[in-house]
Amino acid sequence: MTDDAAAPDTTGDASTGDASAATSAPMISMRNVQKHFGDLHVLRDIDLEVPKGQVVIVLGPSGSGKSTLCRTINRLEPIDSGDIAIDGVPLPAEGRSLAALRADVGMVFQSFNLFAHKTIVENVMLAPMKVRKIKKDAARTHAMELLTRVGIANQADKYPAQLSGGQQQRVAIARALAMNPKVMLFDEPTSALDPEMVQEVLDVMVSLAKDGMTMLVVTHEMGFARRAGNRVLFMADGQVVEDAEPEAFFTAPKSDRAKDFLGKILSH
Ligand SMILES: Nc1ncnc2c1ncn2[C@@H]1O[C@H](COP(=O)(O)OP(=O)(O)OP(=O)(O)O)[C@@H](O)[C@H]1O
Ligand SMILES: [Mg+2]
């Protein structure tokens, strides 16, 4: 199938000089990553390169390690061994540079975790002011641009409890974008939402993808996976069992695990 809309690698090619060696590096690189929780080997030999602008859908049964994979990429979880680099820069173990690198990776979870006693716009302004030391006026201007982008600028002065779940999740996306991340990780961003609110959040994610954001998305929304995904990773028991284009994966999964998994979710 021709898929010219999805070609993610058109921006970097004619890059001017080499401001950093990073320009040609994959946006996410994981090499031989291992992670245990006690005796449980939750990530096994993860080797993954995600080019800039690619949208990767992560699928797999419960407990297969999808959330752990996301959490290791921005070091919410330490790994036992292996290497992870973002835009060519290895993730350090600790300290200040880790905070800066973590800011390059935005993350959106199932639960929105907004600050209840701050307004919507304040929620979006907070991290840029604290972590990036952006002045208040500039932070507010940028926050309002982002709230416009996710379609809720008119809710800026309300508090989280006054918004619907779908609106709160769009605030959470705006909040992550406020740090100007290079990568966005989404861990089941719509699974806590009422069905009628799922689409509005997916629409924001589709538009981010179209704008060229590199994204790794754990989701069971198959329509979104087929429409916005460039690639599917299927995980089982901490391993990447299949790595394929969405159409190929959905129409002709290779492994029994994936066939079984698809049988279950598609018959839902
Ligand atoms: N902090 C932790 N301590 C111990 N074990 C953990 C911890 N976090 C996750 N695990 C275990 O690691 C395995 C992988 O968990 P993970 O949350 O990454 O799976 P998942 O694929 O995201 O599952 P789900 O689809 O249910 O969200 C599971 O067996 C889980 O019980
Ligand atoms: Mg999970």
Q: Compute the average pLDDT.
A: 89
Q: Main beta sheet: strand number and arrangement?
A: 6 strands, mixed
User: H/E element string?
Assistant: EEEHEEHEHHHEHEHEEHH
What is the β-strand count? 10
Helicity level: 25-40%
Pick out the low-confidence regions: 1-22
**Which hetero compounds are present in the coordinates?**
adenosine-5'-triphosphate, magnesium ion
Summarize the structure in short.
The protein is an alpha/beta fold and 268 residues long. It contains nine helices and ten strands.
Question: Main attributes?
Answer:
alpha/beta; disordered N terminus; 6-stranded mixed sheet; 268 residues; 9 helices; binds adenosine-5'-triphosphate; 4-stranded antiparallel sheet
What does this structure look like?
The protein is an alpha/beta fold and 268 residues long. Helices cover 35% and strands 22% of the residues. A hairpin with a 2-residue loop joins strand 9 and strand 10. Helix 3 crosses helix 4 and helix 5 packs parallel to helix 6. It is globular, with a radius of gyration of 19 Å. The two termini are 27 Å apart. The N terminus is likely disordered. The structure holds adenosine-5'-triphosphate (ATP) and magnesium ion (MG). The site of adenosine-5'-triphosphate has 11 residues, from strand 2 and helix 1. The site of adenosine-5'-triphosphate (ATP) has 11 residues, from strand 2 and helix 1.
